Amino acid sequence: MSVKSRHVLAVLTACALVVVVMAAAGIAVWRDLAPEERDIIEPILNPRLGLLLMISLVGAGAAAVLMKSFAQANLLGPSLLADELGLIVGTDPSRRLKPSGSPELQRIAESVNALADQRRSLQEDVEARIREARLSVEEERNRLAALMSELNQSVVVCNLDGRILLYNSRARLQFRALSDAPTAAGGGEIIGLGRSIYAVFERNLIVHALESIQERIRRQSSQPVANFVTTTRAGQLLRVQMAPVLSAVEGEAESTVSGFVLMLDNITRNFEAETRRDQMLHSLTEGSRSSLANLRAAAEMLEYPDLDPELKERFLSVVRDEVQGMSARLDETANAFADSLKTRWPLDEMLGADLVAAAQRRIEKKVSLPTKIEDVDPGVWVKVDSFSLLQAISYLVSRLSDEFEVREVRLRLTAAGRLVHLDIIWSGQAMSTETVMAWELEPMSFAGESSPLTVRDVIERHDGEIWLQREKTQHRAFFRLLLPSAAPQEQVDAGAFLKGESRPEYYDFDLFKQTEASHALDDRLLSELTFTVFDTETTGLNPSEGDEIIQIGATRIVNGKLLKSESFDQLVDPLRELPEASTKIHGITPEMLVGQPPMARVLPAFHAFSEDTVLVAHNAAFDMRFLQLKEESTGIRFSQPVLDTLLLSAVIHPAQESHRLEAICERMGVNIMGRHTAMGDAIVTGEVFLRMIPLLAEMGIRTLGEARQASEKTYYARVKY
Amino acid sequence: MAKKILIADDEQNIVISLEFLMKREGFVVCIAHDGQEALDKARAEAPDLILLDVMMPRKNGYEVCQEIRAEAALQGTRILMLTAKGRETEVTKGLAMGADAYMTKPFSTKELVTKVKALLDVPA
Question: Is the complex ipTM higher than 0.90?
Fold first, then answer.
């Protein structure tokens, strides 16, 4: 019953009550009177009946008025108060009550306001703490990502389904070496956020390692890790250490394994070196045994007194021959093992140019002496303990500066077979050999630094040498440091990882929450799927008339983020001529295609890159047609679902006339860059697609299945290539 | 009648000494320079004993040993393996392949002679 009707009811009841009470009083008095008394009173009352009626009505009216104001205070007031309270609780926590009505109601309103104030401040407090926590988590993640990217070891973190949630640039490099695909994917078809680690390692291997970790955890081992060595598809030997990612579950005393960390070491090179060493050792021992046998037998024959001179000469020549052979073998082994026989001091391999640059900086900073680079071989790698070596170099320079007033030094680095010459050159007089000796043998102390080591110690650590040499014609002298060289290594191409943003998108911890898709992709939310957004450049528009793809560019979307650093960018030799007109569109010239792999080699790599993902392209039908025409010749089928941003645009803005990529970008506020390169277009398409996902959700299109259905219904879907 | 010894080794430097030594001890000597030749000579000459090196071209000593042991006509041939492979596993393998004795290089020529004579039941 509404407040209003209850109000009316209360007033009516009050009226009725007064009338009934008065009528009852009248009737009771009348009944009590004797007949004679009634006879006396009747003539008196009868004429005044109207008056009596009036009195009762007035009474009833007064009751109604009283009741009305009472009900006002006790029914309407609280009800208004309740409504206001509901607003505070539900909609607007900053709203406050206006105290009104009875003093009691006013006191209630004041108390409610005080409570609301308290609640508000508590809420703000909680929000602030959540914000703080989120910031610190974000900071920790960034710190972790920074740490990982600096780490010299390959690290990959996966969830229990084997999906990669984090990897560092070192791992990426290592996987590039494992990839047997053309350079395009650069290992990206193997390693990438959300990709399965089982593409690299056999599932059973990982499962087994996880089981042994679980077992160790059960036995409360202090180090629940597992190690294994495995060969990859490309024939590389990897040593892997696996450690669990433990996460505490509420209500359970023990934490459970929610993922694992893999630390990878490509030991192919070490293994080869070890094998070579084994072979050497083998040839040294067995070869020596044979030679010794020959020697011993010949020597023992020579002991016979009855040898004729000719035989004697033959045995002697055996002795000479074998001694020579053994000496040669020894030399060979000693040379081959020079590296491993060297000091056990851990030496780092570094680019020679980096070492020289570091020396230059250090000299200028510590000794304040100008330096110049005379000649640095850019391809030379050295094997050094850079800290002590730089110390030794600056120490020598500081003594040159202090004692011989040298004003400038020059640095030179040249390769010399297995060794490297690092020269510190200065103009002017050369010191005596005794001085050099003293410099070498005194503990290094200069510019506030002192070390217990001597230059000689440092040189010995490197199994190197140092000497003073004069260039009389040029009136110069130099210290030559002989250092071990190292095999050149692939350098980390920083640029490759810093496309776009400063921090590469190497981690995504939200994948921890993802589980293997047990249900079909169609039922999955667009926001949680992994996509490969791609674009192609072609020789022309008619695939059925022999036009071919000349470039594929692709990037990935994982967990609603565009991963520009996980890209696929490859030119393709179309094995046919390239029409000049098409060059005007894509800027690719025939010369650029010389030496590029043909489609038959690129397609498998792209297939691997896009495996387990949904394909996205603008006007996908066009690109798909090209890919499908290759199915028969390459045996590669792209059977995954495909979404088309052109069709989706028509779903979102059916009234718009143009659904060209440029027009969509303008509508959606996407910056256009690098259009008409496959990669540039793929990135733009990806950005557009990401902005479409929330717009589609507003229209009730949330899953892949819904998006495909909606696309199929648009007009454009009926255009066929 | 003088016993016949086949020396099978690809290293000329040891063959010179062994040949001289065995002739000196009164044996008839023939020589093979690789595994296949050793097998052919063993069949053709039917020696009483073979001084067999393990590491030889074409056929290694183990193979030669095994094939000789598989031929009924050559059952009486004694085989003494001479090898630079000194590990216990290799000695075991040599004996398992049918060698009667095994000597690791370098060896004493006197011991070799003693062993050869013992295998051929010739008084020292």
Answer: no
